[in-house]
Amino acid sequence: MPRYLVSVAGNIGVGKTTLTRLLGERLGWKTYYEQVRDNPYLVDFYADMRRWSFSLQVYFFTHRFRMFQDMMAQPCSCIQDRTIYEDLEIFARTLNRQGYLDDRDYANYRALFETMIRFLPTPDLVIYRRASPEFLLKRIRARGRAFERGITLDYLRGLHEAYEDWVARASASMPFLILDAEEYDLEEQGHADRVVELVCERCPEG
Hints:
Elements: E1 5-10, H1 16-27, E2 30-32, H2 42-47, H3 49-73, E3 78-81, H4 85-97, H5 103-116, E4 125-130, H6 133-143, H7 153-170, E5 176-180, H8 189-202
Parallel strand pairs: 1-3, 1-4, 2-3, 4-5
């Protein structure tokens, strides 16, 4: 039976964890989730993004690098909630563009990323959950996480632009499946079934 390394990409609040859990349960894949609740920098970051942006990005990158190494060691298919590429291409890039991560720290972080990424394989599939920033802000407000209260529409728009740019560029070097979160509501059984079908078409069991 084929073994796949799959990553779910998408903006804050788009439903990456829900999709990861769904595919893990339905396809029997081992699941890996982004560390949010036990993250020692996240609350401080949203309170003072300029002060904590570099520390947060290094923490996330280190966590995801170790996670992908563990995925590589597994004998079964694995799915990861957020790709390692988003740390640089989406979040560090957007923080730099919006003035929260200065050019010196951004260059340092990029050098670290480009040095370490050589040791990891490209995912067999990246599932990009796409949604408008306005849709995402409503979802973020509805789930009511205290540390996310500082997230603004402008920040989400900056991330969205970075996602669209990255997916357009990266599609030449890695396989993507784009799923519109506003079209596929994973709480609806029919929508969830269709999403599983689409993923199975890209990752056949053989």
